[in-house]
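User: Hi! I'm working on a homework problem where we have to compare a predicted structure to a textbook description. Could you give me the structure for the chain below?
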Amino acid sequence: MRRQSRKAALSLVKELDAFPKVPESYVETSATRGTVSLLAFSVMALLTVMEFLVYRNTWMRYEYEVDKDFTSKLRLNIDITVAMRCQYVGADVLDLAETMVISSDKLVYEPVIFDLSPQQRQWQRMLQQIQSRLQEELSLQDLLFKSAMRNTVTALPPREDSNSQPPSACRIHGYLDINKVAGNFHITVGKAIPHPRGHAHLAALVSHDSYNFSHRIDHLSFGELLPGIINPLDGTEKIASDSNQMYQYFLTIVPTKLNTRRILCDTHQFSVTERERVINHATGSHGVSGIFMKYDISSLMVTVTEDHMPWWKFLVRLCGIVGGIFTTMGMIHGLAEFFVDLVCCRFKLGVYGRHEADHVNGVSHNHCAVTPTPDVL
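Assistant: Happy to help. Predicted structure tokens:
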């Protein structure tokens, strides 16, 4: 009984076959149809490979929301070289909450040579070229987000030559934990000292002839330190034309959550506007010589997520490509055959009509010529 029920089920399945089976004797082959089939399979293979490349690729999705975190600290990562001796300069932060953050042991003052070695100069030029491309092509930033933590392109390579010159510059590198309010990070003459009534630097102990605020920014970022991410000020180099030069950078910081296949972290993007001028009180240009970075934090937060095409969508698109190519090629081949047959049939009918008319005229003429005349008795 079970075998009979299985045979009945198999026969029922066979009867439900929706794909017609055409005997081979009924199929007519031709060189034209073979050519169209080869073309269809070639296009199908090409589009399949391209669709697979699209499936492997990812894209960045940006979402915006209000930043509700106001109590946590924000890390400021610094790597700046100033063309002055370390005992002549001081770096600190003063924010709107009247909180003064002094470098203490979190910032390292390292005596170095301001001029770069050939390898370091080549690295800086490459970084500047990337910065110029970032300003023109915004999609390049998505590529940097995807490749985060893959390399350390923002790290200045060590000096490869043995320069015997005495250190004439100061490299200030490290980090500071600042409040999430607007503030001012600055490097100016003299060491910063805490003062109950304001903010002060011991500039009187430094000779005016020692002022030189030519500087190079190898790295400046906010939040977690991510090697491979290039920030707007990385690679910046300024050469002071006067000893009383003042450099101002106005930064707008946007909190950013980065969620990719390789990393999940909280970082911060920022835009920058630059301004520089010579301090001359006689002409009305007042201020203090130094490097000033005034930052403000946006109330919006950006979530950057790396999206990938799901596998089921890839299969649906692949089936659409295969079926669409078969259908389109069949329609094109059918229309081509129709027009070719139409043109050829008209041409053949015209030729056959002329031959038939000539044949009829010739037969009647010969009939009249060979018909014998009756004998007259």
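For your comparison, note the following. The two ends are 103 Å apart (CA to CA). The chain is about 35% helix and 30% strand. Good luck with the assignment!
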